[in-house]
């Protein structure tokens, strides 16, 4: 997927032979790439929406079949995109290395296990059950990356989107993992409150009971410590720029 939609590593590479391709073939390949860009972006949004719907409506049993179908079709789109760009890439091993994470996320593990009647270990099964969450996070990263790379999006807006997206996704994962085992997490609102309090480094009175929840607490606090100072620097620089402009205007008026 090219840089207009997905993460920077997902490129087909610079192909010197592209200039010698027939114009019709080049146009067809470009049209297919653009179509896959749109489909991957829509699939990413759909994964996030499906995951959110499951959390908000607490309809795991009723919604499970439709949710799994959505996951399967999104995985198919991701895999088609991956293999098509692998086919176009002149340096295939480098392409696989740079996009290996995307390939792992695109594999529909929860469909392959029952289809091949596999019986993985409990630790592997736990990882497979977490893959839809990882896929949702990857889809969110693609969506936010596409928005923040727009020329119309300022630096401040980009950082705000990153913080809000990280907080939202962490709250979804925290609620899905902690709700069954943590009596302090009785609704999604409490999980969202926990996420916002941790990302602001204030801390929450809700403590994680699972290993993943504890890791998320550290990740949110670290992200807050890294990103919030950027807001301070941005606001300070804007204030200083405005003050300098005001001083320059006053000097010009005095000189005239």
TrEMBL record:
Q: Which residues form a coiled coil?
A: none
Q: May I ask which residue range the UniProt record assigns to the signal sequence?
A: none
Q: Which residues cross the membrane?
A: 35-56, 68-88, 100-118, 124-148, 155-176, 191-208, 215-235
Q: Boundaries of each Potassium channel domain copy? A: 162-240
Keyword Membrane in annotation: yes
List the SUPFAM superfamilies.
Voltage-gated potassium channels
Q: Which UniProt keywords apply?
A: Ion channel, Ion transport, Membrane, Transmembrane, Transmembrane helix, Transport
Q: Where in the cell is it found?
A: Membrane
The GO annotation for biological process reads: monoatomic ion transmembrane transport
Instruction: Indicate yes or no for the key word Plastid.
Output: no
Q: Which InterPro entries match?
A: K_chnl_dom, VG_K_chnl, Volt_channel_dom_sf
Membrane topology term reads: Multi-pass membrane protein
Superkingdom as given in the UniProt entry? Bacteria
Enumerate the PANTHER family for this protein: POTASSIUM VOLTAGE-GATED CHANNEL PROTEIN SHAB, VOLTAGE-GATED POTASSIUM CHANNEL
Q: What is this protein called?
A: Potassium channel family protein
Q: Which species is this UniProt entry from?
A: Alistipes hominis
